[in-house]
Specification:
About 15% of the residues lie in helices and about 30% in strands. It is α+β, with helices and mostly antiparallel strands.
């Protein structure tokens, strides 16, 4: 068994404090998200971030070698209004989406929305099939 395969529950109790320090920027930018201990039914005995984007159905598992993950997450804001990643330093929004087949009762109709960004409004029109 490799060192990376050991469950985090076997690690000393100060690991939580280390994680809170290492992911401090991420947790400050994303107050909807919180750190969950493995003893609180974390994923596979690992620490997890629960409710990223404010969605309690989603959790991010933190691996033992979390250095690169911390570096990446500390640069992000996970805006609850969107399923997206806001790259803080680059000021870029990366939207996460998938094409979903819409069945009845929607049928075929047009959805009209507006995108608002930095005091500008742009129309967005999408036809559902």
């Amino acid at each position: 068994m490799a060192d990376n395969d050991l469950p985090q529950m076997l690690l000393p109790p100060y690991v939580r404090e280390q994680l809170l320090i290492r992911f401090a920027d991420f947790l400050q930018r994303n107050p909807e998200c919180s750190l969950q201990d493995p003893v609180d039914e974390g994923i596979e005995g690992r620490f997890t971030f629960v409710a990223p984007w404010g969605d309690p159905s989603v959790a991010l598992s933190i691996p033992l070698g979390y250095g690169q993950l911390a570096t990446a997450l500390n640069k992000l804001r996970l805006p609850p209004r969107f399923t997206a990643l806001w790259h803080v330093a680059e000021r870029k929004l990366e939207v996460i989406w998938t094409a979903v087949i819409i069945h009845a009762p929607f049928g075929r109709r047009d959805i009209r929305r507006e995108w608002r960004r930095w005091r500008r409004t742009a129309p967005c029109r999408r036809a559902l099939r």
